[in-house]
Amino acid sequence: MSNALPLSITSQLELPVIISPMFLVSSIEMVIEGCKAGVIGSFPLANARTIGDLEYWMERITNGLAAAKTQEPTKKIAPWAVNLIVHRTNARLETELDLIKKYQPPIVITSLGNPSHAVKHVHEYGGLVFTDVVNLVHARKAAERGADGLILVCNGAGGHAGTYNPFAFIHAVKEFWNGVTILAGGISSGRDMLAAKILGADLAYMGTRFLAAKESLASRDYRKILIESNAEDIISTDVFSGVHANYLIPSLRRVGIDPTRLPTKESFNLSKANTNGLKAWKDIWSAGHGVGAIKKEETVAEIINQLKQEYIDLSTK
After folding, report:
1. pTM exceeds 0.85, yes or no
2. Which of 38, 79, 219, 313 has its CA 20 to 30 A from that of 63?
3. Residue 203 pLDDT more than 80?
């Protein structure tokens, strides 16, 4: 692992992985079990529907990981992370920042805006800020505004995805950036993780591989579609959220949408139901190009054990 990551993090990792925060999917249990298995677990703050719920989530994770460390003091327990939307449309931003300062997650992942306000507060307690970026303009701005890490969201990522090839993106970013670099987009196996490391990434960002984990909040039907799907079942469109994202074609057909004749963008919006009562993410489900790696429902620990074995086997060849 790179020297860009502090020893306080690398010393507690079994694998250089962040389980990426997934809207309506990441759960308290997914975060805790991921950290206990030695990878960074995270969740979007928006998954807790009220501020009271959010404080409960953060308290549960804090206490759960503290208990795990007490029970097994020699075991590697990875740090946890939260995903904070820093755009002005986040009406809970300041309240969420207050809870971040109270519970002090070691890593805060910022999305959709200027991270500098969050950087100020997180750095006060010694935490790190990693920022999602989908292009070089965003990457340079995040670097200038104090981000400790850049998450390069490339083509093939689940949810909102960039359009850059990972080879080209990481090469271009490394010309001006020597901080923590996280690579996202289609990473679903130990081989993929090793490839990301060779490209110069400190950490791999993996979401799709964990969508069908037993600890996830994904519905039974969502899990079934994930297990049955591969890369050919993914479509990229800006219709449902206004920004290009990758969705599962079978989930479109499930709600009566013909993927060859998509509706207009005006019919769908992230913040309100469309005329058919459907919502992106809740009814129309996402996955990345690595969905074919999902073969069955497994626990987070089982997935990480498989990834670890794949990674070790290839690393020692």
Report:
1. yes
2. 219
3. yes
